[in-house]
Description:
- This protein has helices spanning about 5-10, 10-25, 35-45, 55-65, 110-115, 120-125, 140-155, 165, 170-205, and strands at about 85, 90, 95, 105-110.
- The protein is mainly alpha-helical.
- It binds zinc ion (ZN).
- Zinc ion binds next to helix 5.
Amino acid sequence: MPGRSQEVTTPLGDTRDRILLAAFQMPSRQNMVQRKSSITNAFVNAIIPVVQPSVEEIAEALSILKITPENVTCAYCGDSSSEWDHLRPLVRNQRPTGFVSEIANLVPACGKCNQSKGNKEWRQWILSNARLSPTGRRILDTPARVELLDKFERWRSPTLVDFPRILGTEAWTHYWSLCDEINSDMREAQVVAESMRIEILRRIA
Length: 205
Ligand SMILES: [Zn+2]
């Protein structure tokens, strides 16, 4: 076992170091290129139409999911819900899937699940050990929730937008070239930023 012999010779010091190192957490170094998916998500989200549900549709959606309107809980894990999440993701491979913001594609979710699920397919994610996924968090009634979500998915065929057909291929291609330009500018800026960061560290070290 690594570190074992050290533990034997200096048990107190070693434990103290371990506790102190575990207590500290350096903020992760930000990199502009990591923002590529958030820029792409912004380009997708900016064009997604929002379709308001009727009161009856809200009642129906909640009843399928066995959630009471007085106490809206996360359809994935059962915690208190903080938002409604797109069941089928809006983005795949850096492009819109065609799904929109409408009740047929929205379920109540908690922040943990929403953050953990991201743009993943719901079934694959919920059954995976992804960080903060219901399976990863050992939520026992996950199979029952999967059944309800299955039922919800069958409730209605969601709208699937063919963006290039509605907007024209030229306008569509132009829109994504704007996104690619921004991403490429960010990559360029990141190279400059990286050498600046190294220079700053050298001066203050
Ligand atoms: Zn949840």
